[in-house]
UniProtKB/TrEMBL annotation:
One of its GO terms (cellular component) is cytosolic large ribosomal subunit. Residues 13-63 form the Large ribosomal subunit protein uL30-like ferredoxin-like fold domain. Part of the 50S ribosomal subunit. GO terms for biological process: translation. PANTHER family: LARGE RIBOSOMAL SUBUNIT PROTEIN UL30M, MITOCHONDRIAL RIBOSOMAL PROTEIN L30. This is Large ribosomal subunit protein uL30. The keyword Ribosomal protein applies. The gene is rpmD. Gene3D superfamilies: Ribosomal protein L30, ferredoxin-like fold domain (3.30.1390.20).
Length: 69
């Protein structure tokens, strides 16, 4: 799913941070922290609601998104 726009459809998303926030803008750092990601390799599972979809789309180049099974 990385590189695509995430739609708020209520599915469970497995979000993995793949890149560091070093050199990124402050809003990117804040968005990753709000998702619960602290460092590359961290994984969180969140529902794909409107808020989460917006946050993931903001930091799409820093995360990998998969549908949780």
């Amino acid at each position: 799913m990385s590189g695509k726009r995430i739609q708020p459809d209520g599915a469970e998303l497995r979000i993995t941070q793949i890149r560091s926030v070093v050199g990124q803008k402050q809003n990117m750092r804040d968005t990753l922290r709000s998702l619960g990601l602290k460092r590359p390799g961290n994984v969180v599972v969140r529902k794909a609601d409107g808020v989460t979809a917006g946050m993931v789309n903001t930091v799409a180049h820093l995360v990998k998104v998969e549908e949780a099974k």
